[in-house]
Structures are given as structure tokens and as C-alpha cells.
Amino acid sequence: MKTEPLTWAQAHTNIALVKYWGKANLELIIPQNSSLSLTLDHFYTQTGVQFDEYLSADQFWLDDQSIPVSSKVKRCLDVVRELAGINQFAKVVSYNHVPNSAGLASSASAFAALATAASRAAGLHLDGKQLSRIARRGSGSSTRSIFGGFVEWHGGNSDATSYAEPIQDPVTMDIKMITVILNRSQKSISSSNGMQRSVTTSPYYPIWRDQAANDLINIKQAIYSNEFTNVGEIAETNAMRMHSLTLSADPSFTYFNADSLTVMNVVHHLRQNGIECYFTMDAGPNVKILCQSKNEQRIQDELANHFKPQDIVVCNPGPGVKVIRDPRLK
Q1: Is 149 left (phi over 0), alpha (psi -120 to 50) or beta?
Q2: 189-208 per-position pLDDT tens digit
Q3: Phi, psi angle pair for 316, to nearest 5°
Q4: 220-246 per-position pLDDT tens digit
Q5: 103-114 pLDDT per residue, tens
Q6: Parallel, antiparallel, or unpaired: how do β-strands 150-154 and 163-168 relate?
Q7: What is the set of domains in the chain, with CATH numbers?
Q8: What distance in Å separates the CA atoms of residue 308 and residue 182, rounded to the nearest whole number?
Q9: EC annotation (predicted)?
């Protein structure tokens, strides 16, 4: 009997401007606080899924290499199987156009693409809210990559109330994000482990959670009012407060490296000389710089004094997840 072809989806990474850092429910990946992100156009994942009655176990292929099926991938597939009322195992084929586990949100695009492709392959036609809840079971930040533009993830307190929705797509603000890729290797402390250490040992964690809630209110107002300066200031301060939790954890740790500090100093220098830009960082050494079109080239020129051109990537606001044709077909 001929099997059906894989169903494919493509999702883009997102970078949080108001960070999610810490889980209130580890199994459901319910966050300690709501968050807000910008989906980017440059980095993305393409994933194909096929449920096959002849398979004896789930299979996973990443960039043409067979690898073990992780518990997170299995969890997403199990949620889809339960919703669709099927029990077949799945073949998953994924191509990741993002450095893995380096603080560039590779898991966000990966699980958003997986949730979408798997649900379609299972015969489900779900809306964005439903897809974001499935994606969340693999990676918290992936709930936001279901949508394009500025996206809010409502933290909630249950599976039903923890989901994402777009707050502005298409983006009307003149905003770009320059990503400086400082390290393409997998980070030594995973986001999940770093979060839990911060939640359980940093004495400042409750203050962070309250401040993040205020940051969310303020940055949404800045987006609606098209106030780039306020967006940038809130994003930079929020990121540094998040990273202060890693430094105040026990034992302390950091995702910064020497090059991270160099980029931050470049941003400070540019601002002092009238070039408006702001930095943010996720759980990894790579730094992202928020700017407007008029300053993009000046910032790139300054960064080129310190880093290779191929490691400086200019991103624009990106789209939400979509079903695509098989990317292997030319």
C-alpha cells in the first residue's frame, strides 16, 4: 500500500523583547510570566510529518541525519495523536536554518513548524491559538512563532489559557533586528536548566516577575503608539534584568562571553554618538540589536570593525507559520 507524502510547514524564529524566564508548570510548560516577541524573517525551520500505520516507532531526521526522538518531539506528536484520535507513529523530517541551541530561538521555529505539520498530517485544521498551545508543549517560545510580527504569549495558568496571539501583524513600526552571531555551538547550560536554577535560587526572582508584567504593559503601549525609543529601552532593560537572575543564582552562571560584552559596548558607543540602537539577548551569547532603517548601515559598519560580515545578519519582521510544498523538490 502506498503511503501518503509528508505534510510540510515552515516557521520562523522569534526574539522576545519582554522575556519569558521560568516555568510555573514544567510538564505543560506554563510560564511564570507573560511575554512579547518579534518574529524574524531570516531564521526558519522547515518540517515534514507523515503518520504511517506501518511504522513501529516514531522516526526523526534532522538535516538528513537520523537522530533519536526527543521527549519534547514525542510529547507534541502525542498531543496531535490524541486530538486526531489516531495511534500511528510518525516520520518527522526537519531542516533547521538556525544554529541549534545557541540563543537564536531554534527551538521556537522548530516546534511551531512541527505542531503545524503534524496537525495537518493528522487531518486537523486548527487555528493559530490551538497550534500555539500544541507548540508550547515542545518549547515555550515556540508558541509565539506560530504568528508573525509582534506576538504576545499569555502566560495563563492552564493548558487552555496559555497561548499566543499577534498584537501587530504586519508591523507598522520601522524596526529591524541585527543579529550578531558570536557562537554557533550548543550552549553549556540549557534554557530549561537555567530557568529553573534562577527560579529556585535567585533571591530577586519575585521582583523580576513583577517587573516583567509591568514591562509587558508598557511595551504594548509603545508598539501601539509607534514609539521605537520606548520599545528599545524596555527591551534592553528587560533583557539585562533577566540575565541578572543568572548571575544571582546559586551557583551563578552567565550566557555572556567576551564578544557579547564587545557588542554591548559598541551599542553604548553608538548611542553616545547619536546613533539610536538597543541590544537584547536570550539564553546564549549571541546579541541582537534593535534599530531603525536610517541607522542600519552605520551600525553594520561599526560591527564590521570587530566581527566577520557573515556573522552580522540584518532581520526584518517575519511571517507566521505556513504550510509549504516539500522543500526537497526542485
Answers
A1: left
A2: 888 899 999 999 999 999 99
A3: -110, 165
A4: 999 999 999 999 999 999 999 999 999
A5: 565 899 999 999
A6: antiparallel
A7: 7-172 (3.30.230.10), 176-315 (3.30.70.890)
A8: 10
A9: 4.1.1.33
250 — pLDDT class (breaks 50, 70, 90) = very high
DSSP string, 10-74: EEEEEEEEE----EEETTTTEESS-EEEEEEEEEEEEEEEEEETT-SS-EEEETTEEEPPPHHHH
Q: Which amino acid is at 163?
A: Y
**Cβ count within 10 A of residue 220:** 18
User: Which string of b and e fits 39-49 if b means at least 16 CB within 10 Å?
Assistant: bbebbbbbbbb
Q: What is the grid cell recorded at 171?
A: 508591523
CB-based contacts of 4, cutoff 8 Å, min separation 6: 50, 52, 121
Whether 2 shows a pLDDT value over 50: the answer reads no
Distances (CA, A) of 122 to 61, 71, 126, 137, 260: 19, 20, 11, 17, 43
Read off the C-alpha cell for 320: 507566521
β-strands 287-291, 176-180 pairing: antiparallel
Q: Which of 252, 224, 219, 257 is nearest to 237 (CA)?
A: 219
The dihedral of CA 166, 244, 31, 180: what is its sign? positive
Quick one: cell of 169? 501583524
